[in-house]
Amino acid sequence: xxxxxxxxxxxxxxxxxxxxxxxxxxxxxxxxxxxxxxxxxxxxxxxxxxxxxxxxxxxxxxxxxxxxxxxxxxxxxxxxxxxxxxxxxxxxxxxxxxxxxxxxxxxxxxxxxxxxxxxxxxxxxxxxxxxxxxxxxxxxxxxxxxxxxxxxxxxxxxxxxxxxxxxxxxxxxxxxxxxxxxxxxxxxxxxxxxxxxxxxxxxxxxxxxxxxxxxxxxxxxxxxxxxxxxxxxxxxxxxxxxxxxxxxxxxxxxxxxxxxxxxxxxxxxxxxxxxxxxxxxxxxxxxxxxxxxxxxxxxxxxxxxxxxxxxxxxxxxxxxxxxxxxxxxxxxxxxxxxxxxxxxxxxxxxxxxxxxxxxxxxxxxxxxxxxxxxxxxxxxxxxxxxxxxxxxxxxxxxxxxxxxxxxxxxxxxxxxxxxxxxxxxxxxxxxxxxxxxxxxxxxxxxxxxxxxxxxxxxxxxxxxxxxxxxxxxxxxxxxxxxxxxxxxxxxxxxxxxx
Length: 498
Ligand SMILES: Nc1nc2c(c(=O)[nH]1)N[C@H]1C(S)=C(S)[C@@H](COP(=O)(O)O)O[C@H]1N2
Ligand SMILES: [Mo]
Known about the structure:
Layout: H1 2-21, H2 27-38, H3 41-51, H4 55-76, H5 83-102, H6 112-136, H7 142-172, H8 177-183, E1 234-239, E2 245-248, H9 249-253, E3 258-265, E4 276-285, H10 286-293, E5 301-306, E6 311-315, H11 316-320, E7 327-332, E8 335-336, E9 346-348, E10 362-368, H12 376-379, E11 391-396, E12 402-403, E13 406-415, E14 421-428, E15 434-435, E16 437-438, E17 448-456, E18 459-469, E19 491-497
Parallel strand pairs: 1-10, 12-19
Antiparallel strand pairs: 1-2, 3-4, 4-7, 5-6, 5-10, 7-8, 7-9, 11-13, 13-17, 14-15, 14-18, 16-17, 18-19
The structure holds the ligand Nc1nc2c(c(=O)[nH]1)N[C@H]1C(S)=C(S)[C@@H](COP(=O)(O)O)O[C@H]1N2 and molybdenum atom.
The site of the ligand Nc1nc2c(c(=O)[nH]1)N[C@H]1C(S)=C(S)[C@@H](COP(=O)(O)O)O[C@H]1N2 has 19 residues, from loops.
InterPro entries: Ig_E-set, OxRdtase_Mopterin-bd_dom, OxRdtase_Mopterin-bd_sf
GO molecular function: heme binding; molybdopterin cofactor binding; sulfite oxidase activity
Domain Oxidoreductase molybdopterin-binding: 223-377
C-alpha cells in the first residue's frame, strides 16, 4: 500500500507542475509518449489495427497496471528497510525525467514536472515507511500509531487527488476550444461543387459520401491532443527557398480560401479497413505559399513539423502540382478544423497516405532534400514515397452476416485518389466477374461507392471485389501487409443466405 501511495503522490505532483509548464511534461504522459515513439513499427501497426482509436487508452491503462504492480511489489520488499521502495520510486522518477528530456516539443523548464514527481514520490515513501516502522516496533503503542499511518495514507490520497485534479484543470485553461470558437465562419472564395445525391449509396449500407467530422477516422501519435490557439500559431516556411516566410493565422484566413472534397487514407488501413474518410477541406493552395517563398532547384522534400514534434516528408513536386490540389487546410466540413484533426492548420495532399502528406498542428515547413531530413515514420521503417494504393471494400453484407436468400445487393466503396476509379468488379462464389454500378464521380481525389445485385441460394457464400483505376491498373490479389507502404489484396466477405 505504501508503494502505491507513493506512486500516486509522485504522479499527482508531476501532473500538477505540468499544469504550469505544459501538459506533456506530466511524467505519466511523457513516458506514454516516449513509449509510442519507441514502439517497433509492427507493434504500433498491430495496436492501431486492433484497438483503433482506443490504442492510447490501452497504452495508458497498461502502463498504470505495470506501475501499480511494481510499486506494490517494491512496497512488499520494503518490510525491513525502505531501500527497495525508494529505489523503485526513484527509478520511476528517472524514467520520467528521461522521457520529458527526450520530448522534442518540451524545454528545460518542463523537467520541473518529473523532478516534482521524484521528490514527492521518494519523500512520501520515506515518510510513510518511517511511520509504519514505528508502528511495527515492539514498544509501539500499537493502536494509536497504526491509526497515524492510516491517517497519513488518507492524507496522501487526498493530496494526490487535489494535485492531480489541479494539474488537469490548469492544463484545461490553456485549451484551444475557445480560440477555435472565436474563428467563426470560414467563407471560401471558391466553394467545392455540391455533392449530388447519387454520389453515395448510404441507403445500401455504404458510408455517407462526406464523413461527419465526429466520424472522420483519427490516427496520430499524440497522447494528449495538442492545444494550439490561433494567436499563438504561426507557420514558418524556410530551407531551400529564396526568402523565408512566416504566416500568422490571420495571414492565412484573410487570403481567398478554396474548398476541396478530398478522401484521406491511412497507410495502416488493412484490406477492408475503415481508416478512410472524406471531407470538404478549406484552406489555401500549398503551391501558392511555396511559390511566394520561391523553391530553389534541387529541392526534393517538403519536411513538415507539428507542434508536438511529429514530422512528415512529402515530395515537393506533389506539393507544387496544382492539378493535385495540395492544401494548407484550416477548415473541415464547414467548421474550423476540429482540434483533434489539427487545429489551427494542417496539410492535406491528395493521393498520398496521411503519414507523408497530412501533418496536423503544422507549424514548420522546411524545403529540403531527402538526404538531409528523415521524418518520423521513415525512421521507423515505413516507405519514403507512399501514394495511396487503389483499393475497394465491401460494406454490405457484413462478414458472417445472415441475409434472406434471393435477390441481395452487395455494396461498398472504392478509391484511387489522383487517378480515379474506372470500374469495380465482383465475384460471387466461383461465378464470373461482374461489373458493379458506380456512383457519380465527385472528383478524382474522392472515393466512389458501388453496388451490384445477385441472386443467392440458401447456404454459405463468399463475395470478392476488386477495383480497376483509370490508369488501367487492377488491384492485385496478392495479399501484402500495411508495412512499409500500404496493404494490397482483394476484400472478401463470407455470409450466409437463409
Ligand atoms: N502531428 C501529427 N500529424 C499527423 C499524424 C501524427 O501522428 N501527428 N498522423 C498522420 C497520419 S498517419 C494520418 S493517416 C493522418 C490522419 O489524419 P486524421 O487523424 O485527421 O484523420 O494524419 C497525419 N498527420
Ligand atoms: Mo496514417
